[in-house]
Amino acid sequence: MVKMAELTGHTSRVLFMTQSPNGCTVASAAGDETLRFWNVFGTPEVVANPAPKTNLEPFASFSRIR
């Protein structure tokens, strides 16, 4: 656990923090009634060739009797 950066902007203590689903942005809410968004991890890398979609149907690998 090493301190990477110090984010300043709230004038009161931070009450809540959460990370965005893409993992790049952090949102913080403080007692000063402000909500701030912090771009602390940069932009995500773009994947050139996305992985092929798998069959989402359950038991797709089993033979069926109809």
From TrEMBL:
<dbReference type="InterPro" id="IPR036322">
    <property type="entry name" value="WD40_repeat_dom_sf"/>
</dbReference>
<dbReference type="Pfam" id="PF00400">
    <property type="entry name" value="WD40"/>
</dbReference>
<protein>
    <submittedName>
        <fullName>Uncharacterized protein</fullName>
    </submittedName>
</protein>
<dbReference type="GO" id="GO:1990757">
    <property type="term" value="F:ubiquitin ligase activator activity"/>
</dbReference>
<dbReference type="GO" id="GO:0031145">
    <property type="term" value="P:anaphase-promoting complex-dependent catabolic process"/>
</dbReference>
<dbReference type="GO" id="GO:1905786">
    <property type="term" value="P:positive regulation of anaphase-promoting complex-dependent catabolic process"/>
</dbReference>
<dbReference type="InterPro" id="IPR015943">
    <property type="entry name" value="WD40/YVTN_repeat-like_dom_sf"/>
</dbReference>
<dbReference type="InterPro" id="IPR001680">
    <property type="entry name" value="WD40_rpt"/>
</dbReference>
<dbReference type="GO" id="GO:0051301">
    <property type="term" value="P:cell division"/>
</dbReference>
<dbReference type="InterPro" id="IPR019775">
    <property type="entry name" value="WD40_repeat_CS"/>
</dbReference>
<keyword id="KW-0853">WD repeat</keyword>
<dbReference type="InterPro" id="IPR033010">
    <property type="entry name" value="Cdc20/Fizzy"/>
</dbReference>
<dbReference type="GO" id="GO:0005680">
    <property type="term" value="C:anaphase-promoting complex"/>
</dbReference>
<keyword id="KW-0132">Cell division</keyword>
<dbReference type="GO" id="GO:0010997">
    <property type="term" value="F:anaphase-promoting complex binding"/>
</dbReference>
<comment type="function">
    <text>Component of the anaphase promoting complex/cyclosome (APC/C), a cell cycle-regulated E3 ubiquitin-protein ligase complex that controls progression through mitosis and the G1 phase of the cell cycle.</text>
</comment>
<keyword id="KW-0498">Mitosis</keyword>
<feature type="repeat" description="WD">
    <location>
        <begin position="7"/>
        <end position="40"/>
    </location>
</feature>
<keyword id="KW-0131">Cell cycle</keyword>
<keyword id="KW-0677">Repeat</keyword>
